[in-house]
Design a protein that fits this description.
- About 35% of the residues lie in helices and about 15% in strands.
- By secondary structure, it is of the alpha/beta class.
- It folds into 2 domains: about 10-140, Rossmann fold (3-Layer(aba) Sandwich); about 155-295, 3-Layer(aba) Sandwich (Rossmann fold).
- A 10-stranded mixed sheet has the order 3-2-1-4-5-10-9-6-7-8.
- It starts with 8 loop residues before the first strand and ends in a 10-residue tail after the last strand.
Length: about 300
């Protein structure tokens, strides 16, 4: 019987999200990739430095035990197979158990999310992320300029999520942008008992919840909702999570305050937000990714 990834949390990730290939990427020309390929070949035995999502991946893979494989991380890259050799060697040198990879040599890779059954796709390529979101997969563009994750919590995966247009739909955000804060507050107060529709990252939160419930020895997950909502709009968000039977460990209702310093205190391995201003601010403090979802990301 063929192996499958059923029951595992599946993360698909690009090479620039996992490793720091920014120097090499400056040489990349999709119409003439030979110089890039040659450089990667010359550096075959030089392990690449960790990238923005490296801490997240390493910690998630620590949930695996010989008798229980709970997490699968798959390289999904526009790189060529030659460059793929360096990626696998870099992973081995960093003691990261990366076993699977799909290398498309410039062709769109996001279609392979379907056979993988991915719960998350992380890439530095905005077009690939947008296409993955359209296909219904949680996906974020990694800000490669983000600071590295804190090493203060080696046995805990910490992930922070924005609410509207990330965990939840953008229903309420549309009211806010069309009619203002007062109308938004009235709308959410009136609908406090009505769960918000699912957002693009609800499947990832659910998969993390299942992983936490699996009870891997020595590792745990800590999640946070970090939102610009404030009372009374907080209640609908909390009741939505209750309706999903999913708990978050921390919830921050910041009422428009900048998120960056609060995230610095939480020390996530990754933060997801749909608004570029919040993501750019967060990237100064923590690893961050932009979710190109909802009304804030419609074509101008």
């Amino acid at each position: 019987m063929a192996l499958n990834l059923e029951g595992q949390l599946v993360v698909a990730i690009s090479s620039r999200a996992l490793f720091d290939f920014e120097e090499e990427n400056r040489l990349f020309d999709p119409l003439n990739p030979q110089a890039y390929m040659q450089l990667q070949l010359e550096r075959l035995d030089a392990p690449a430095r960790p990238g923005v999502a490296f801490s997240l991946v390493r910690k998630l893979l620590a949930f695996n035990e010989p008798e229980h494989q709970r997490v699968a991380v798959v390289m999904l890259s526009r790189n060529d197979p030659v460059s793929g050799m360096r990626i696998f060697r870099s992973a081995r040198a960093a003691n990261v158990a990366l076993e699977r990879g799909v290398f498309t040599q410039g062709r769109d890779p996001f279609g392979y999310l379907r056979p993988l059954g991915a719960h998350l796709f992380l890439s530095a390529n905005e077009d690939d992320v947008r296409q993955a979101l359209r296909l219904g997969y949680p996906a974020a563009r990694v800000l490669t300029e983000s600071v590295q994750a804190s090493q203060a919590n080696p046995n805990e995966v910490r992930i922070a999520f924005d609410g509207d247009a990330v965990l939840f739909s953008d229903e309420a955000e549309r009211v806010f942008q069309a009619e203002g804060l007062a109308a938004f507050q009235r709308h959410e107060d009136d609908k406090a008992a009505q769960p918000l529709p699912d957002g693009p990252f609800k499947p990832l939160l659910a998969a993390l919840h299942r992983l936490q419930q699996a009870g891997a020895s020595g590792m745990r997950i800590r999640t946070a909702l970090v939102t610009a909502r404030s009372a009374p709009a907080h209640e609908r968000a909390i009741r939505t999570l209750m309706n999903w039977n999913i708990e978050v460990d921390e919830a921050m209702f910041l009422g428009g305050l900048a998120k960056g310093e609060f995230l610095r205190e939480f020390e996530p391995d990754f933060f997801f937000d749909d608004q570029t201003g919040h993501v750019n601010s967060a990237a100064q403090h923590v690893p961050a990714g932009h979710v190109a979802s909802g009304v804030s990301n419609l074509p101008g």
